[in-house]
Specification:
By secondary structure, the chain is mostly helical. The protein contains 13 helices and no strands. It has 2 domains: 106 residues, Cytochrome Bc1 Complex, Chain D, domain 2; 104 residues, Cytochrome Bc1 Complex, Chain D, domain 2 (Orthogonal Bundle).
Length: 297
């Protein structure tokens, strides 16, 4: 009996030594004596914020993402929501409320008597851009106890696109101002129009000629004639051109800043516009085009 006990104890001790050795070896292989976690994780976990290392990009403000967003892409993403929500005017509530005109509307009120959770009712206020951004990032974190089962959209640009799409459905709230630091990052954008090249702008304007004329007295086409448009009132005159309500709502005149915002992304500048052109992503090219437009007067 004593021999059997000693033999058993010996095997248990041997197994422990082997396990300890394997654990130490695997630590060497998988951690490789590194104090930090890998630069690129094997897979992304929604909601986890990666600590910045060398080369880590700063998060782009959601206002900047809205400014370059795409209503059509937002509509495509919204298909993920259609199992619970309708968004057409007068649409019925489903698992979630109808979302027509939701941007700027009061939280957890109205919506045809939809039964909102107490968690969402307690938030109060309206669905402004900031709260929509938080909600779409992670509904359960925004309103713990919400009945909303959707996990959220971790991609900021995708959220911005969806917000723009919802805004085009009966809301048309003005876009929030982009923080100055994000609007003109060092060495990237913000070429002064005064220092731009009208001749290069004329070349780029050829992209616009399928819809616009720019000569004095030129006829309107798919878009209005643009002669002397710089400094003129938005969505007025132009030989009686039928401007969209979205552009009429902007008001004011076409100064350098509004021309730049419009040329960057027309749909973001005036959600609901009839303008189909996606915009000019290059700041220098936009400045050149604006310089050319300003020369036509």
């Amino acid at each position: 009996m004593q021999d059997r006990f000693n033999t058993t104890a010996g095997w248990v001790l041997f197994s422990g030594i082997v396990a300890l050795g394997l654990a130490s070896f695997s630590g060497k292989v998988f951690h490789a004596n590194k104090a930090e976690r890998p630069e690129k994780m094997g897979y992304e976990i929604a909601g986890v914020v990666h600590s910045g290392g060398e080369g880590a990009a700063a998060a782009e403000p959601f206002e900047a993402l809205l400014a370059k967003g795409d209503v059509a892409k937002g509509e495509a993403t919204f298909k993920k929501c259609q199992s619970c929500h309708t968004a057409n005017q007068g649409g019925a509530n489903g698992i979630g409320p109808n979302l027509f005109g939701i941007v700027g509307d009061k939280k957890a009120e109205g919506r045809g008597g939809f039964a909102f959770s107490d968690a969402l009712k307690s938030k109060g206020g309206t669905w402004d851009w900031a709260s929509l951004n938080e909600w779409l990032t992670n509904p359960k974190a925004y309103a713990p106890g919400t009945k909303m089962s959707f996990a959220g959209l971790p991609d900021g640009q995708e959220r911005a696109n969806v917000m723009l799409y919802l805004n085009s459905l009966g809301s048309n709230l003005p876009l929030p101002a982009v923080p100055a630091a994000a609007a003109a990052p060092a060495g990237a954008a913000g070429t002064p129009v005064a220092a731009a090249d009208p001749a290069k702008g004329e070349q780029s304007f050829k992209k616009c000629q399928s819809c616009h004329t720019i000569n004095q007295g030129g006829a309107n086409g798919i878009g209005p004639n643009l002669f002397a448009i710089a400094g003129d009132k938005k969505a007025e005159g132009r030989g009686g051109f039928a401007f969209s309500d979205a552009l009429k709502a902007k008001g004011g005149v076409w100064d350098d800043a509004s021309l730049d915002a419009w040329l960057t992304n027309p749909r973001a500048f005036a959600p609901g516009t009839k303008m189909s052109f996606a915009g000019l992503s290059d700041a220098q090219e936009r400045a050149n085009v604006i310089a050319y437009i300003k020369s036509q007067k």
